Amino acid sequence: MSTAPATDAAAKKSLTKLQRAIVDGLEDVKAVDIRVFDTEHLSPLFERVIVASGNTNRQTKALAASVRDKVRDAGFAKPRSEGEDNGEWIIIDCGAAVCHIMQPAIRQYYRLEEIWGEKPVRMKLGAAKPRAAVASPDASPAPARKTPARKAPARKTAATAAGKTPARKTAVAKKAAASGKSTAAQKLPAKKAATLKTVVVNAPTAKKPTTPRAAAKKTSKTAGR
């Protein structure tokens, strides 16, 4: 039984993993215009060529460092690199894949896409980065929290606001008037009410006017004594 198909499948899987690691390293530092080409039919030394641009020397050096880290984290051997002294064109040899990090002017001058770009490889850029979770349309919404209702302050009735006497007090006043008693007298304390009663009882009675006839009788009685 031949193991060649299994070996080819493992090699292809390893190559896909390697090129994914390189592209992820470039994306982490915002590389510009990332291109991946299949060069297996052009050279026996490597199977992929990856070209990307960095705007400054500092960015190209950061891109090279990021690619090296991603390749090592993926389980591959530490890549070799050249051109980091000036940062205009850095070549990172990852074994089965070679990555060219170039500044825009250098990339436009050498046009590596015309040399190695006969078979471009389509890759979904940013596929390795986690995406924000999207809520499923079938998912039930989270229950809303119940907020305790605030008690509304007691409002004054229209009659009170207008300065009118409430109906209950009006009824009491009418009842007192019907019984012949004053509402103000009912509110007097017991001591004052007793005093008022004593004053009324002990009040002197008014004298009747004396007529001339009565005055004559009184005078005769006084003279006969």
Taking the alpha carbons of the first and last residues, their distance comes to: 176 Å
CATH overall fold name of the domain at 11-116: Beta Polymerase, domain 2
Compute the number of helices. Answer: 9
Our estimate of the beta-strand percent is: 5-15%
C-alpha Rg, in Å? 56 Å
Q: Can you identify the CATH class of the domain at 11-116?
A: Alpha Beta
Major sheet attributes: 5 strands, mixed
What's the β-strand tally? 5
CATH architectural name of the domain at 11-116: 2-Layer Sandwich
CATH superfamily of the domain at 11-116: Beta Polymerase, domain 2
The topology string of helices and strands comes to: HEEHEEEHHHHHHH
Mean pLDDT, all residues? 74
Low-confidence spans: 128-140, 157-162, 181-188, 195-203
What report would you give on this structure?
The chain is an alpha+beta fold and 225 residues long. Among the domains are: 11-116, Beta Polymerase, domain 2, CATH 3.30.460; 166-203, no CATH class. The protein has helices spanning 4-28, 57-73, 104-110, 112-116, 158-161, 167-178, 183-186, 190-201, 212-223, and strands at residues 32-38, 48-53, 80-82, 89-93, 97-102. Strands 1-2-5-4-3 form a five-stranded mixed β-sheet. Helix 1 (4-28) packs antiparallel against helix 2 (57-73). The protein is elongated and about 170 Å long. It starts with a helix and ends with a helix. The relative contact order is 0.10.
